[in-house]
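Re: beginner question about structure tokens

> Can someone show what the tokenized structure looks like for a real chain? I only ever see the sequence side.

Sure, here's an example I had lying around. Input first:
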Amino acid sequence: MDIRAEILKEHSKENSEAIAAWVGNNPARLQQLVDLFLNDEYRVVQRLAQVVSKVGDRYPELITPH
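And the corresponding structure tokens:
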């Protein structure tokens, strides 16, 4: 999945949920998400905040190092 393209398609709770579900408990996918969250343009970062929050709620041990 191209996380950036997906988050820019639609700004909705359902889209954020779908991306968070795709990331799941996968460290490599989480790294893609974190890289975008920390380094992309403001609009992308703002939209990804909800995804990062959802992943962090579900898998705190996975997101703690970041």
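Each token stands for a local structural state, so reading them left to right follows the chain. Helices lie at 3-9, 13-23, 27-39, 42-58, 60-63.
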